Amino acid sequence: MKELSVLSLICSCFYTQPHPNTVYQYGDMEVKQLDKRASGQSFEVILKSPSDLSPESPMLSSPPKKKDTSLEELQKRLEAAEERRKTQEAQVLKQLAERREHEREVLHKALEENNNFSRQAEEKLNYKMELSKEIREAHLAALRERLREKELHAAEVRRNKEQREEMSG
Description:
coiled coil; mainly alpha; Stathmin_fam; 3-stranded antiparallel beta sheet; Stathmin_sf; Stathmin; about 10% strand
């Protein structure tokens, strides 16, 4: 934007009416100050058509000129593109191989953990079964011992009874 002098800025504070011929030019556009509002300022922006532009300004519609490329340059570009494609393909293959290796490691670890868990569960179950078997055998042995003691007691009671009957009878 065009800078206003300090004097014109101060004057604009006292005199709010813009100068009727206030026109600013910026490249391909023109800005006119209008007096349409009492509370502020308004502007009209006029864009110039591309045909009105001066020849020194760049043409927006024309593409940049391409320099003529030789066969050797085209060959070099093709070789460079082929090399980039090969390196990119090698990188993708490397990433895939790393991913597969990681998947194998994860599967191996999962199988190992599963086997460890199964082995531990089996050992725990065997321990509980052996403990249960020992407790059962101990209980049965205790029952047999009590039964034998009862039979001995019963035999003793019968003997005592027979002895009383023989004495009394």
